[in-house]
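Please predict the structure of the following assembly.
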Amino acid sequence: MATAESKVLLKEFSKGIFKENPIFIIVLGLCPTLAVSTQVINALGMGAGVIFVLLGSNIFVSLLKDFIPEKVRIPAYVVIIASFVTVVDLVMQAFAPSLSKSLGVFVQLIVVNCIILGRAEAYANKNTLGRSVLDALGMGIGFTLSLILISLIREVLGAGTITVFPIDFLGFSGQIRIPWLSSFPVRVLGLASGALLVMGFLKAFFNWRQMSSAGDRRGGTT
Amino acid sequence: MTYIGIILTFVLIENFILTQFLGLCPFIGVSTKIDSAIGMGFAVIFVMSLASLVTWAIYNLVLVPLNLTYLQTITFILVIAALVQFVEMIIQKISQPLYKALGIYLPLITTNCAVLGIALIAVRNTYNAMESFVAGFAAGGGFLLAILLMSALRERFETEWIPKPLRGMPIAFVTAGLMALAFMAFDKALLNNLLG
């Protein structure tokens, strides 16, 4: 019994990373994804912000689900989410001013990120606290990993660098330069259109993978 | 900046969708038919012009005097949500045809990041009331332009053969990417040349 229970919980956690990946499968929360994916450090910062807000909102929504009247639930969720976004915004301004500057208006725009409201409405208001926490962590990590994937492709090919943190640390500048690529980068990938192109082809890749695995299953039964 | 400068900036140079990535969800979701794209575009123009004016007033007449500017995210999103509801009710009472045309798009607009985006950007750029209104209107216009071009292209896709994994959303992203490349021709230098 205990193993079956933990298997279910593990599924709740991992579905956000693979099966219901918010970016590549459900395709939610695109605006920040594409806008901040120019450097890996931005993806890390944005991902951390989203995980924090998602965790906070899922916890509060799931705790308050019996107290919030049905009719005003969406405004109530929005207030909860906006409060956590304000916390993230202020903390980032205080402790990571350069990151806050490069993410710009997109930190505050986490509030309209459909992933967060979507999880509150579709999951946290129906499930227990523990499961909501697992769901938030899974979805948040799935979002962050997808964001890192996109920004890794864009930064490596578009600028020939990988920026992990923006300050000097023990003689390491926080930026890895890739020898040949950084002299001949494919600059278009760093621009706005590159984000859309990378997203389009990645989504096509995931579609193709889903299709071919469905094909395999059909082949297995006959 | 002059009003013409603001309009050119938000419609062409900093087009919300193609260079700023604000409002992508409705852009990809509602751009399959020209009719619905036009409806969505006008609903967005309407809400954005109104929202940028109202949030300007709230920010400068309420939040700044009371030293509450750190509450801007919460205030703006609630004001926008309330405004959209209010507009929906008024349109329903005043004009039934207009409600039929725009009605279904209005609720979607609340979670459109372009609306909150223009409110926040207007505050960051310290625009005055009229400039905020013009910026909201122009950014909405840029959205209409982009979604109109996109839906016209996507209607053509229906008769063309597209590799299976690329059908639907992926080809829409790739098309938008190529459009963004074309929009790069509009840059700050163009603005300087035009307006001296």
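Chain B has one domain: 20-183. Residues 34-63 of chain B form the longest helix (30 residues).
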